[in-house]
Amino acid sequence: MAVVSSAHSTIFSKTSLFHHINGFKRFTFCLPFSTSAAVSLSAKKKWRQPVASSVLELGGNKIAKDDVVRDDPTNNVPDTMFSKLGMQLHRRNNHPLGILKNGIYEYFDTNYPNMFDKFDDLCPIVSVKQNFDDVLVPADHVSRSYNDTYYVDSQTVLRCHTSAHQAELLRRGHTHFLVTGDVYRRDSIDSTHYPVFHQMEGVRVFTPDNWEASGLDPTSYAAEDLKKSLEGLARHLFGAVEMRWIDAYFPFTNPSYELEIYFKEKWMEVLGCGVMEQEILKSNGRLNSVAWAFGLGLERLAMVLFDIPDIRLFWSTDERFTSQFSQGQMGVKFKPFSKYPPCYKDISFWINESFTENNLCEVIRGIAGDLVEEVSLIDNFPNKKGMTSHCYRITYRSMERSLTDEEINDLQWNVREQVQSKLNVVLR
Asked: Do β-strands 266-276 and 290-297 pair in parallel, antiparallel, or remain unpaired?
């Protein structure tokens, strides 16, 4: 049960949900490997997108770029996403996401010794069944659309949430587990949204031996244990904070809740959770059982705990960022290095019926990569002929250097060309 990350709209948000199949069946587990998407550039050189290796090794198997990024009408995975596969920021002990993951592990290891199995290397290439059907996401839910999800082909996706592994682990006999991994969502561009982010999912299964002596029905017993466990986790991460539970809706849990804490003088959502639907348990061999599940976004919590202002920084290899964090040092406050100036460029066009903002952001991100800080709609009006015009402001800013007028103009020119040709809009 995963809350899709950071400030992302996710499978645990109110607005969107928490093949070559033969070729991918064997890619069940992924092993770490050393790679870097960083490019060393001087301010005088034009910026270019990092070039990904054409072959990755995941789970001891080689995956070619052509296996993931294809010229196929059912494929919408851009080159930039292939370059992120296998980066596994959550497995780096000196990275804020790895530090946070290990801090959560510490809580569960201390309070539930030798109970929870941990998985942080499961392959992000999964079937549509794993990603949606197995966790009861409705067939008509918006999260299944090509506008929201990266499809390798019609039956294979880059996982949208770590819940994609829940059914498989239950079938394999795991009753207490934590799953951490990178997840992928087509999304907007701003300081809290990124198309790759990281989640942790937790599941605990109970049998009649657990609840019968309590005097509670199975659902109430699981809900009470869930709240006690997660309130303890919140105190472990944030200290003695005020908390409140909000009733929520997720298709895979009932009842469902969101945990909020009062932190830095405002209420902040920490995670989504609930008592797992019986259909999931029964279809995966867990008869006469009840379970709870929770999901949280690592970036969302790490940005607060480490005072990291921009989600792009998690991907930085700049030593001024990476050197500030050390294994086991939870909550060290990030000290910003030089704030480089932004550059604003506007683009206006008449939209068509198939236009979506996510598609626009994919085009812009494919050209400018992490040099684009934000894309925002600043004007929207219809004309007398029934056509609608949108004007978007693109904010370009590097986190590591000053951008030159020449490279920004080149980027904007390419954006205009690609927006017109790929989205079939009429520039104004």
From this structure: antiparallel
Name the one residue in this structure whose structure tokens are 């596969």: 85
Can you tell me the distance from the alpha carbon of 176 to that of 191, in angstroms, rounded to the nearest whole number? Answer: 34
Which tokens go with 322?
């990476």
- Cα 71 → chain centroid: 25
pTM (2 decimals)? 0.86
Prior bond of 251 cis (ω within 30°): no
Two tokens, residue 324? 């500030």
Residue 11 near residue 163 (C-beta atoms within 8 A)? yes
Q: How far is residue 12's CA from residue 135's CA, in Å, rounded to a whole number?
A: 12
What are 328's two structure tokens? Answer: 């086991």
CB 318 within 8 A of CB 398: no
Angle, helices 96-111 vs 218-238, to 10°: value is: 130
Distances in Å between the alpha carbon of 313 and those of 94, 116, 317, 356? 14, 31, 9, 27
What gap in Å lies between CA 314 and CA 321, rounded to an integer?
A: 9
Question: Running along the chain, 428 residues long, what does each successive block of 10 average in pLDDT?
Answer: 42 39 34 32 38 63 82 90 89 97 98 97 94 95 94 95 96 97 94 95 97 95 98 96 96 96 93 97 96 97 96 94 94 89 95 95 95 96 92 94 94 97 95
